Amino acid sequence: PREAVWHGLIRKNHGCTHFIVGRDHAGPGSNSQGEDFYGPYDAQDLFREHQEEMGIEMVDFKHMVWVAERAQYEAIDEIEDKDDITILNISGTELRRRLQEGLEIPEWFSFPEVVEELRRTKPPRNKQGFTVFFTGFSGSGKSTIANALMVKLMEMGGRPVTLLDGDIVRKNLSSELGFSKEHRDLNIRRIGYVASEITKNGGIAICAPIAPYATTRRAVREDVEAFGAFVEIHVGTSIEECERRDRKGLYKLAREGKIKEFTGISDPYDVPQNPELRVETENVDVDNCAHQVLLKLESMGLIKG
Fold first, then answer.
1. What confidence score (pLDDT) does residue 128 get?
2. What's the pLDDT score for residue 50?
3. Are 204 and 129 in contact (CB under 8 A)?
4. Cα angle: 40, vertex 41, 43; to 5 degrees
5. Spatial distance between the Cα atoms of 204 and 227, rounded to a whole number of angstroms
């Protein structure tokens, strides 16, 4: 209730003369026993008590429900024949769930034009942009899985897919950067920014950098999640297996001291604590790994099976 008064004072300071206070305005919900902290109209009562002193008038808004038999909205507190009628209501939380999952929104709830606009601005999860972020040692199989995933997602269609592979980004986006911690962080933040823009505009970004530092990965997650889902995939191939493969000869150079600050040899790798998925390529082929990622995306509602 006090938050409603605070909100009213802020509006008053910005020149408003009236302020709408709804049912359970800014309410914190229920406690662990399922009991409401405040009554549904406590905020309105407190605001009404202080509105003259504040100099801003409240426009109270009651809890409205749809009465099927009368085909109209009515304030629930003013309905006297509740036992003899059908009362329908959709909460804000339920509306968001229906929009997110692409479910039907009843005709009685709103005008078709309003629902259409809501669906346009808040498309279902399987039509929103998202980012798949692979992380792991050099040679772990990140790029190979990322390419296989890209092909599968492009075959599905519906959304543009962009691959932001570590080598591609180094060549086209971060060619002036070295491999110090500061430069590696900056490289990952650039990848995160591009991925967030792709996500914001309804596309799918697939990123496959080493991204050794947890704090930087967390920052990228926050950037992306402002616009859509962030799916972190830890490719947990062991350092021994990556060094055995060593297709580029980088581990050999690192062991010889010719490459400084090499992840896994002379520089740490922060293993993800709570990634959306872990895969490894030592005993599982690439197609299987890509399929695991697809199943995870499907379980999150980001793609349809």
1. 92
2. 96
3. yes
4. 110
5. 12
Measured distance CA(51)–CA(31) in Å, rounded: 29
Counting other chains too, the contacts that 238-246 makes at CB distance below 8 Å and 24 or more residues apart are 238/280, 238/282, 239/137, 239/264, 241/139, 241/140, 241/281, 241/282, 242/137, 242/138, 242/139, 242/140, 243/139, 245/139, 246/139
State residue 167's pLDDT score: 79
Helix or strand (DSSP H, E) at 118: helix 112-121
- The fold adopted by the segment(s) 2-89 is Rossmann fold (3.40.50)
Per-residue pLDDT at 261? 81
Model pTM? 0.72
CA distances from 131 to 25, 26, 100, 111, 195 (A): 35, 32, 17, 34, 6
pLDDT tens string 50-98: 999 999 999 998 888 999 999 999 988 889 998 999 999 998 889 988 9
Which residue spans of the chain are classified as CATH 3.40.50.300? 125-299
pLDDT at 68: 93
Contacts of 199 (CB under 8 A, 6+ apart): 128, 129, 130, 131, 205, 224, 227, 228, 229
Q: Which residue from 111, 7, 116 is spatially nearest to 56, judged by alpha carbons?
A: 7
The low-confidence residues of the chain, meaning pLDDT below 70, are none
44-46-48 Cα angle (round to 5)? 65
CA quadruple 207, 203, 128, 301: dihedral positive or negative? Answer: negative
In a 3-state reduction of DSSP, which class is residue 18? strand
Please state which architecture CATH assigns to domain 125-299. 3-Layer(aba) Sandwich (3.40)
